[in-house]
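User: Hi! I'm a student and our assignment asks us to look at how structure tokens line up with a sequence. Could you show me two examples?

Assistant: Happy to help. In each example below, the sequence comes first and the structure tokens follow. Example one:
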Amino acid sequence: MERIWITEVELKRYKVLTDVLEGIIDLRTASELLGLSYRHTLRLRDRFKAEGINGLLRKRPLKPPNTKITPEMEHRIVSLRKELYKDFNILHFRDKLRDIHGIELSYESLRQILIKEGLHKPRKKRKVYRRRRRMPKAGMLVQMDSSQHKWIESATDPWWLVAMIDDADGYVYGRFYPSDTVWANMKVLKEYIKRRGLFMTLYVDRASHFKTTRHGGIHYEVSVEQGETQIQRALKELNIEIVYANSPQAKGRIERLFGFFQDRLIKEMRLKGIKDYDEANRFLQEEFLPWYNSRYTLSVESAYRELSKDKDLDLIFTIRHPRKVNNDNTIRFKGKVYQLLPLKGIKSFSGKWVEVCEYEDGGISILFEGKKLSFLEIQDKKYSKVHSANALNKREYLTEEKEIRKEKWRPPKNHPWRIYVRKK
């Protein structure tokens, strides 16, 4: 006697179609009971009438499908997992199998193979929190943060990854630095603006290079108005608003990005055999970030604006130091004396305040009311008094060949004061 394995669905179809053939119900009612279309119910009735219950059973294909996972393929997948990709997550492992080894599987198929071989232990589902919606346009909000981590195994000290991500389209730029300094954050900001343009708002935490925070005590008072940081001042010049997050969860998009990078980027650099700080930065800039942005950046409308030609990013992203000009038209900065040269007819800046703009390489520029000044470095203070007199007499630094002198004002003949004197 032949044994037939039948499911509950097929058993229900058998009973309903039997009633159809016996004339108890019509075909329209049968299609409603089975939840199928009238046409498909008609096909099932004809097959049941011709073949009996075998016409309702699922028929296996004559040959296995091309996508069937063979034992040889499973063995290769398990070997690759143990040898090269033992600490990769399943999604990362699936991408490597597809891109490098030519094995394309679904996420669940690969997961089941790893569970069967004891190479993956399923975890309980975590509670999913509601995420803040993305901005509608790219350039409306950009998040920035730093992540300290041991990015390569051979590194003695952990590095800092300073990164920025657009809240709307997910574009990312970042770079490794030995420490999280003002210069490091300024360089990342400057490079991001060069690549994409000016954005509207920067979303950051309350780190000291973003916001000055002082706490009062019983022995001293703290002013309510705090001084601007160098980054605050630079962003104000570019008309970029800065917003501060009250918790890491508030800027969750860039926090999740760091989790992704700490998982994938470390393993990718290990496969490449990277053991040096410069090599890691080169791989990040030339390979990993282009791959990430090409795959995960969304296509949305842009709100970035072009940088005007009168804006010098290298000058804007400098560290400014205010200095008051001495009576001999000199200033002191880091143990050196600088002689200021005339500008637009102004021979002396004595008593005025100027800004010394310090570049990362140690070079400086001096600004007076937003305009660059020419200056000379003086080695000796005694020499500066003699040299300053000679420098002030140099006509090539003046905009006009003659000195600008204010003429004495004389009232005209028809002035009311002259008329009054004549009458008197």
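Example two works the same way, sequence first and then tokens:
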Amino acid sequence: MPRRVTDYRGLTESSRLKLLHAVQRRPGQNLKSLAAAADIHVNTAREHLAVLEDEGLLYRAPVDTGRRGRPPMQYFPVDQPQDNQAAQDRATEASARGALLRRISPDRDHGQGLSAAALNQLDVLAEHLDDVGMDPVVDSEELTVGVRPCIYQDLLAEDRPLVCSVHAKLVRQQLEHVDGPLKLRRLHPFTTAHSCLLVLGTDDEEATTQESGIDADRTDTELAEFALAAQQRAAQTTDVADCPR
């Protein structure tokens, strides 16, 4: 299948994912430190960071050194859409497409109990996940999103926890890029060897203790460790199911 024009190139290259992960973990790093974190040449890092910036996944800002000449740059995650024009355009266009689809196909709207703002957030999140290649299945009543991150299964088999951590933060950002009550509450990585589940909630909901998954506000290290353990359990279950009887 050819790439769609809206697909993210930045998330299909291991070095770019490592760079984005480094920016998310410690915002404000410069080019040299990010290249070292991804273990790549500075010139290669510069090219990869430009792709990530063009696709609305990070932004750069100059450092005021008080000296003449071109200032060094620091890199940051896109917490607000106004930080990056591409991110703002994606959110605006996804909102417009979602609203249009509901007008012309009312039967597609299964979120009768949700506010227009919440539906808008779901539109933006679903389109983001679709562009990433994760084949989202949105349940507006249960406020869950099933995803199948199979395109990364072979590409980054050894770095799956890193991938999960990066995408968890991107999901949170997508929900925050438009006004609305929804936020990411819990993650269920590797419900099978090729699927995960996102659990959303509203700002006014009281947090509930759940027997599975992990709180989305956990640290980067905790998310990575939980994802790795879930991946190992899913692999063991698959191995047992594949065994001849």
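Here is something you could point out in your write-up. Helices lie at 14-25, 31-38, 42-54, 85-104, 116-132, 160-176, 220-242.
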